[in-house]
Fold these 2 entries.
Entry 1:
Amino acid sequence: MTAVRTQAIARGPGSRAWAMMILAEGRAITRDYAGLLLPLVLPLLVLVSSASMASSEPIGDTGFTAFEVYVLPIVLTMVLAYVGLLNMPSYLSSYRKTGVLRRLGVTPASPLMVLVAQIVVSALLSLVGIALALVAAFVFFDAIAPAGALAVVGACLLVMACMYGIGMIVASLAPTTNSAIAVGILLFLGLGALGGMFGGRDLLPDVLADLSGYLPFGAGSDLIAATWTGQPVEVSMVVPLIVAVIVSAGISLAFFRWE
C-alpha cells in the first residue's frame, strides 16, 4: 500500500485531478457572493457614473473620446486590480490559515495545484468582468472599437500579471485572512485613487500626479489607453509593470509559506 502511494506521489496528479481542483476553486468563488459580484458590479458602476460625465467630443485627431481614453481603461484596470489585490490573496491566506495547504502537502495533490487553480479561476473571473464592461461600453455608450485588439489583450495580460504578482506578496506576508483583506483593500483604494479611479489624475498635487503614472494602476490604465487608441506605447507605461512582476515574483518565492 505504501509503495502504491509513493508511486502515485512520484507520478503526480493527472489532468482529471487538475480539472477537479480548478472546478473546486471555481465553486468556492461562486459561493462567496462578495468575491464574485464586487469585481463584476463595482467596475460597471464606475463605468456608468463616469461615462455620464465624459465628453463625447474627440480628443485631438485620434477620433477617440474621453470614454475610450480615460474611462474604459480605468474600468478594465479596476477589474484586474480587484481580483488580483483582494480576491486571490484572501483565498490563499485562508487556505494556509485553515491548514488546507499543509494537508495537501502529504497527498499527490501538491499545494502548488491550489495556487495554479486559484490563478486560473481568478483569470476567468477577470475575463468575465472585462467582458461585462466591454458589452456595457459598446451597447449602452457606443464605445469606439480599439485600434489594435491584440495590443489591448497584451496590455491587459501584463496588467493582470502585475496585479496578481502584488496580490501574491500580500498572500505571502499577511499572517491572517483578515489582514490580507485589509491590506488588499488599502492597496486597491490607494493605487486606484492615485491612478484616477475617483477622478482625473490632473486634479492631484503635481508630485502625486507625476508619481501616479509610474505606479501599477496608473501605468496599467495608461498602457491600456495607448493600445486601445493606437497611440505610441511609452517606456514609462511598460517598465513599471514589468519591474513589479519581477520584484513581486522574487518576494513571493522568498516569503510564501504553505503553512
Entry 2:
Amino acid sequence: MRRIIYMVCLFCFCLQGCEKEAEYQYDDVNRLYFEFIDSVRFSFGKLPEEVTIDTAKIVVRLLGNSSSHSRNYRVKVLEKGTRLSGITDMVAGVHYEPLDEKQVFGPDRFQDTLRIVLHRKPLSPSFRNPEYKTLMLALESGDDFEVALDKGREMKLSVNNFLAAPVWWEKYSTNLGWYHPKKWLMLIELDPVFADENSYTGTEATVQIRAAVMADWLKKNVITDDETGMRVTMSGLEEIEDKN
C-alpha cells in the first residue's frame, strides 16, 4: 500500500513539473532562439574558386506569437562564448561584413534568417593544414523580443576555405573510411542527399550502397591529393606506383 501511495505522489510531482515547464516555454512573451542549438559550419570549399563572397544563413525561430508587421531583435558578436566554448577570431571587415546588432524579424512568420556576409580570400585553402575561423554570436533581450531558453541563445559559426569533413562523416566512417574532400565530392555526385555538411537525412542503407560504389571506383581509378600528389584511397593517402 505504501508503495502505491509513493508512486501516485511521484506521478503528481512529475506532472506538476511538466506543467511548470510548459508554462515557462509557452507563456505570452515572444522569445527567439537559434534553430541549430550548438553550431553551424560554413565552407567555401564546395564553391567554385571564382566565388569570393558568400552568405552564411542562420535560422532564428520564434517561440510566441507571429505579427502582421516587422519586429526588431538584437544579436551580438561575442569575444568569447559564455554558454558555448569558442573564441571569436574572425575580424569584421576582413573575414565578414560588420553585423548590425539590430536585426529585423519579418511579418507573419515563425522563423527568419540571420545573414552574415563572408569573405573567402583571407582563408587558407589547405586541407593538410586546416584553418577554421570562428564567430561567436548571442541573441539578446530587447526591442520586440526576449531571449528564449538557455539553449539556443548562443551560436558558433565556423568558417573555412577547404572542404572540411561534414559533421556526420565520423558517424558513418565504418563504411565511408578516412575522410578526403574528393571522396565527399564523389558522394555528392552519386547522391545529393550527402550535400549538407550539417546534417545527413538519408538512410544507413544508402550510405552502405554509395560507399561500396565509391570504394570500387577508387580501386579502379586514380584520384590524387592536390597538395601531395598522392593517391586517395578509402583508408588514406598512398604513394602512386611507378610502372616504368
